[in-house]
Every structure is written in structure tokens, then in C-alpha cells.
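Review session, final week

We close the course with one last complete record, chosen because it touches almost every idea we covered. It is Epoxyqueuosine reductase, a protein from Vreelandella songnenensis with 362 residues. Go through it on your own first, then we will talk.
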Amino acid sequence: MPHDELARLADLVKTWGRELGFQQVGITDVQLDAHEQHLATWLDKGYHGEMGFMAKHGTKRTRPAELEPGTQRVISVRMDYLPPEVETTKVLGQPGNAYVSRYALGRDYHKLMRKRLAQLARQIEQEVGTFGYRAFVDSAPVMERALAQKAGLGWFGKNAMLLNPKAGSLFFLGELYTDLPLPVDPPFEQEHCGSCSACRTACPTGAIVDDKVIDSRKCISYLTIELQGAIPVEFRRAMGNRVYGCDDCQLVCPFTRFTRISREQDFAPRHDLDRASLISLFAWGEEEFLDKTAGSPIRRIGYERWLRNLAVGLGNAPWSEAVEAALWARRAYPSPLVREHVAWALDEQRHKRGARIATAAP
């Protein structure tokens, strides 16, 4: 295909992408040498914790053509996810309510974005005929943020998130690997963080250990979602009421004020997860959990770890008879993991009750 036709196709791809609901579309090549070295160093330091999948696939993660033979270009897309009328920092200041990371309030984004990417691929196919492609949305060994930066979608913030000057970082990324030699976009080279270190200061557990470097083993998102076993005691109080993920480093970022509200109905909160109390969520039975998290990213952690996280949140909540009663109701729960965290939470509540009584004494 001649260069001018490929350039025209690239423009069409971006137009079609925006029409499908992606806020930005960029195209890049598959050279990720610098990012490959950064990943190797990160893995060598053990910062991935139990996320063995980060090392499992070798260089397929950093060499797209090894993952999908024939890949010459990557079409990178982003989609805003913050729904309207959703509180962010306010909920963090309400310790009796559960904080669920804003991306997980609605339906699972993977299916929605993959469907849109498949539609984009079909439109390209109608234009050029059969071509090689494969769509990804956080579902395979893909360097999503690195590819997005190279495609001009943003720069790496000090919290290692991809930041866009007009949209902050509250968006999802997706990719279409293709064998079409499309012209590439210039990478986003200029970083706008400057001397700002708000994200590092705000991290409750000190997980941002260096510029653009996260020690996942300390990150609340990792602890509440990826970690299979017990949450280390030294991080439990710092979790506060965060029961699924953590957005603190994004919420304090100055660029978050440019976040665009999503028009996707699938991202709207379900079952009042943007404002539900810890007690009400802790009362869900397993069937209710499975029913209410159907089609939600929360489902992947399972009921046992859901209770584990909520128990920690209740331990951090202000003392009340209702909180203690909720914890006692799970004191003999069959899972040793849940029982351990409930016992810890009850100890925390006992200390608070004792302090309350001592303060009230004449």
C-alpha cells in the first residue's frame, strides 16, 4: 500500500476510534528496548510481588512481534472512565463507608473496550481487506503504558501512571496489534510533573519508592486485589477504608482536575458501590457477592478476599456497637484468612472502645 494511502488510513483509524468512544487514538512502532531494561530491573528487585505473570512471558511483553507474529504497528487507545456525580476524596474522609477504586464501580471495562477495538478492526478490514491484527485490553503481556507514551497519548508521571495534560490519568488503555505499516505518531516526550511530588507524598504506604517506580508489595491496589494471602499487618491501618484498589496518587495529581466525565453507561456505579457502608458490604453472603459483582472487575478477587479487605476496613472504622457486631458475626467464619483479619479488626475496635471509655470517664 502506498505511503499516502497508509497516511489516509491512519487518519481514518483515528476518526473511527473517536466515533467508537475512544477519547484518543495514537499509532506507534514496536521498539521498546528502553522499557524492556526498565522492566527487567523492576523484576530483579522483586517489586512485582506475587504477580508472577509479569515475568512469566519473557520478552513477549516487550517485543510485540514475539507475542503476535507479524506485528509492525500498535494502535493505542484511551477511554475515560470517571462517571458523573461520583464522589472521590469525600468518601475517603468517611471512614464508615467503603472506598472502591473509581475504575471498578461499574461493569468490567475489558469486554466493552475489546468489543470497540473489534469494531475498529472490522472498519479497517472493510477499507483494506483482510489484515493481521489482535486486540488487547489489560489481558495479555502487553506494555500498555509504554506503547501509549510512544503513541503520543501521554507521559509517565512520578507514580508510574500515564498522564495526559488534558485528561489526567483516570482512563483505560487498549491496543490493536497490526501488521499494517501505518505511519507512526511522535511519542509524548515532554514531562510536565516538574518538581511536584504530590503523588509520592500522598501514597498511604510509601509504595512510590523512586521516580516512576512502584514497589507493588506496598501498594494498596496490589494488597487488596493481587495479594492472595494475608495483608501484612504493617499496612492494614494505612489502608483505611480502601477495600478494592486505591486512587490516592491519582486524586492528588494536579492534572486530575482536567479529568473528563465518561459518557459510557457501563461505567456508572452499580449497587451504590460509590457510597456503600462497610457494614452493608460485609453483610453480603457469597451468593449476593457473586450476583452483585457479576460483570464487575471486583469479581476476580473472590468472596474470601472481599471479606478480608472489608474486615480491615471495619477495623479502621470509628468504634461503634454496629461495627463490633458485624465483626463478631464473622468471627467463626470457615476461612482462616477471613478469621485472621476479623480478629485483628476486633482488637482494633476494642482498643478504640477502651480509649473512648477512658476519654468519657470523669
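Two points worth writing down before the exam:
The first helix runs from residue 3 to 19.
The beta strands are 24-28, 73-80, 99-100, 133-136, 155-156, 162-163, 171-178, 208-210, 213-214, 242-244.
Good luck, everyone.
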